[in-house]
Amino acid sequence: MRRFWSSLFRQKSGLIGIVILLLLILIAICAPLLTAYEPNKIMLLERLKPPGSTTASGYHLFGTDSLGRDVLTRLIYGTRVSLLVGFCAAAISVVLGTALGLLAGYFGGWFDTVLMRLADIQLAFPFTLLALTFIATIGGGLVQLILIMGIFRWVTFARITRAEVLSLREREYIQAARAIGFRDLHIMLRHILPNVVAPVIVSASFVVASNILSETTLSFLGLGVEASIPTWGSLLAEGRGVLQEAWWIATIPGITVMVTVLGVNLFGDWLRDFLDPKMQ
Fold first, then answer.
1. Handedness of CA 243, 248, 251, 256 (dihedral sign)
2. Does the reported pTM lie above 0.85?
3. For residue 77, is it within any domain?
């Protein structure tokens, strides 16, 4: 823990990233307590009020949108969707990709060949195009969006894990474990997997940022979660049509997305240095 805190305070960018992430998580958890407005309550008499306006319903720090809904409230509730999609989809990708990469790297043979060729084929297609195709086929929704992102981003973790396993499986301690009589499953879980956790965790932090951007993009195109659920992408889409007369509707969510992705990337950069033995 001393090394953790020393590294964190020595590298200020990592501290900034963690503060941003913790603040966003706190906002997502305490969303109902941070605002007195309903995210979908329409008040047409208060539409397109600029930031800092006071109306009959109360004070609007970030103004209102074209239907009179409080922008700050929708931004706060949209934080829940972005973080949920980002972290849950990354967790699915980590579990699926690490398991497949571990098996492919350890056993090799036809399974390794087939898996890597599937990975090459998937990488040849843009992720957004694949996501659009499957959402148009099976329909949109929060669960569908998480599953699509989680399944289609397994390649990153499978290739990283496979590369690490290929360099570890012939090490002396692995050979000793085989000579003692340990089963393959025991060797993979107890001797190889702990040594590939660090690069997988670092990659997961960057995948979280990619998932947040992808969710925002798909919601902007109207192919994300249900229209009744406020998201950062839907706020950007709403503000696009009234950008000249109500700049705040699109600008404020855009800045929020930028700060969030920046915070995740700063945290990932620090985590890479913290977990790298060569940096100790």
1. negative
2. yes
3. yes
